[in-house]
Amino acid sequence: MAATTAFPRMTRPRWLTFPLLIGILLILFWLIATVAAPWMTGYDPLDMVGRRLKPPSWDHLLGTDALGRDVLTRTLHGARHSIPIAVTVVACAVAIGAFLGALAGFLGGFVDTVIMRLVDVTLSFPPMLLAMAVAASLGPGLGNAAIAMVIVWWPVYARLMRAQVLEVREREHVEAAIASGATQTRVLTRHILPLCWTPVLISATMDLGQVILLAASLSFIGLGATPPTPEWGSMISDGASQFYSWWVALGPGLAILTIVLGFNFIGDGLHDYFDPRSK
Amino acid sequence: MNAAPPLFEVRDLRVAFGRNGVFAEAVRGVSLHVNHGEVLGIVGESGSGKSVGMLAALGLQPEGARVTGSVRFKGQELVGLPRRTLRHLRGSRIAMIFQDPLSSLNPVMTIGDQIAEAVFLHNPDMSRKAVIERATDLLALVSIPQPDRRLHQFPHEFSGGMRQRVMIAMAVANDPDLLIADEPTTALDVTVQAQIMEVLADLQARLKLGLILITHDLGVLAGHADRVAVVYAGQVVEQAGVDDLFARPGHPYTRGLIASIPDMTIERERLFSIDGTPPALGRLPVGCAFNPRCIAAQDICRQTAPVTTGAPEHTAACHFAFQTVEAAR
């Protein structure tokens, strides 16, 4: 076609794969929604703005729910709850897990045994079950659900970090640093830890999606967000009781699908970028 | 000779690795010494215990290793010293250079930061500006062009020879008295080897360093060492001044090593080699450790371990030390 020559040839760097591009676009969209949700539709997520259970129309692109609230507005507002929670949970889990894992790997011996047995005990429960138990005992609310998820998630990073520290610790530059008189703390913080972050970063990106899914699951069974909050899990729960009004659950369902997919694509892309062997 | 103790003296050093109470000795009673400003070459095959022994002498033995014997630095006993005291010695008074300069440098720190760290560790009161100035001077000292620009680069931007120069710069950062170079040129190609040896020799002479040069290449020692200790299976089998060693090797193993150096003036089908391989850890033969590979081995060699004999300046551990192969037969 002659038209193709009218545009300059699009070039993209090798690391920017098609899935990674999709992932970035999806996450970008949800980040914008997090910031700009109030201005993206003309409705308020908590207001009854139309007749109840109206199918999608030009006024309500994703219809209205059982209380006559606009589903699209609520879905976009859902990002304001899910994304900060996911980021907080993963950040806390990485901080706790990486710290303890690094200590276990570096110090070894008794400290290692204590920390790793704690990790084993925590990981021996199915994550959903443990999160449910903790969230239920703390009471409903997104904050408590977040605490429960941190408790479920930190051991993953502790293991990852420990394995990484054990590997890097044996490298020759660490021995060279010790031979030049560096202190234990200095060896750990300057010569071991900076080389340990890559797998943690990749894993954390993927886990952002998983945490959103877990948060929604907890809300779905009533252990997370409390009713008027436009949280995706509880919205799907509402939709489940309105089976023939399919649009009620469609919005939050699509939201969870796209955001988890987006984080996984980005995680995969990071993995390929940092670890060329896997290509 | 003066009565002052040698700069660095190792006596009957033993390093054993064990599991469940069963120990195998990798270093079996090594004794040697280095004087101020002297170059001691330690030569031996891979696995002969030369690196392990020197690392253990500085308290850098692998976890689970048992170190006994005596290591004195300027008269101060190092074995059994608390970790903190050892740490202050390492990198300031005693420095080390490792075999592979790429893996010995931190890949995520700039060259400048790493040299600065070496300086800073032992001069915590120095200002940042002074530390960086010192780092620049050190790079210049090991003949790296454009040192102020090179400081901001990472190890992967340096060539192998340049990296080893950086390692040397870091090692001499605090004007040590003793430098232990563990196969400093093994990972480099031959032309670069010569340059690095030149840098080392030059610094050694200028800074009056005691230098321990660990290598498996007798040829490297010929031009650079004052004295040589030949190590086999964790023991010093021969120790002599470098010229004396080449002129009058007392131990069959040393003779074998010297014969293995390729001679460019003679046309030969095959290069000389010593048959066999060094004994595995914990599986030493009865008698002399070298007897299964020795061309002059007699019954006595298979029964009793030889004692070290000879004048103080030239010793060898062989039943037939300083005798010719023919005489031994």
Task: Itemize the secondary structure elements and their pairings.
The complex is a heterodimer of chains A (279) and B (329).
Chain A: H1 3-6, H2 18-40, H3 71-107, H4 109-123, H5 127-138, H6 142-169, H7 172-179, H8 184-192, H9 197-220, H10 232-240, H11 247-274
Helix pairs in contact in A: 2-3, 2-11, 3-4, 3-6, 3-9, 3-11, 4-6, 5-6, 6-9, 7-8, 9-10, 9-11, 10-11
Chain B: E1 8-19, E2 22-34, E3 39-43, H1 50-57, E4 65-73, E5 76-77, H2 83-89, E6 94-97, H3 111-122, H4 128-141, H5 147-150, H6 160-171, E7 178-182, H7 190-207, E8 210-215, H8 218-224, E9 227-232, E10 235-241, H9 242-247, H10 252-260, E11 308-309, E12 314-317, H11 325-328
Parallel strand pairs in B: 3-8, 3-9, 6-7, 7-8
Antiparallel strand pairs in B: 1-2, 1-4, 4-5, 9-10, 10-12, 11-12
- State the strand order across the main sheet of chain B: 6-7-8-3-9-10-12-11
Order of helices and strands of chain A: HHHHHHHHHHH
Specify the structural class of chain A: mainly alpha
Q: CATH homologous superfamily of chain A - what is it?
A: MetI-like
Count of DSSP strands of chain B: 12
Separation of the first and last Cα atoms of chain A: 33 Å
Give an overview of the whole structure:
The complex is a heterodimer of chains A (279) and B (329). By secondary structure, chain A is mainly alpha-helical. Chain A has one domain (18-31, 61-278): MetI-like (MetI-like fold, Orthogonal Bundle), CATH 1.10.3720.10. In chain A, 71% of the residues lie in helices and 0% in strands. Chain A contains eleven helices and no strands. In chain A, α2 (18-40) packs across α3, α3 runs parallel beside α11 (247-274) and α10 runs antiparallel to α11 (247-274). Chain A is elongated and about 75 Å long. The relative contact order of chain A is 0.15. The mean pLDDT of chain A is 87. In chain B, the strands form two sheets. Chain B has an eight-stranded mixed β-sheet, with helices on both faces. In chain B, strands 2-1-4-5 form a four-stranded antiparallel β-sheet, with helices on one face. The longest helix of chain B is centred in the middle third of the chain and has 18 residues, at 190-207. With 329 residues, chain B is of the alpha/beta class. The mean pLDDT of chain B is 86. Chain B is built from eleven helices and twelve strands. Chain B starts with 7 loop residues before the first strand and ends with a helix. Chain B has a single domain, classed as Rossmann fold, CATH 3.40.50.300. Chain B has helices at residues 50-57, 83-89, 111-122, 128-141, 147-150, 160-171, 190-207, 218-224, 242-247, 252-260, 325-328, and strands at 8-19, 22-34, 39-43, 65-73, 76-77, 94-97, 178-182, 210-215, 227-232, 235-241, 308-309, 314-317. Chain A binds chain B through residues 171-173, 175-183, 186, 190-191, 194-195, and chain B through 58, 60, 87-92, 95-96, 98, 100, 103-109, 117-118, 121-122, 167, 170-171.
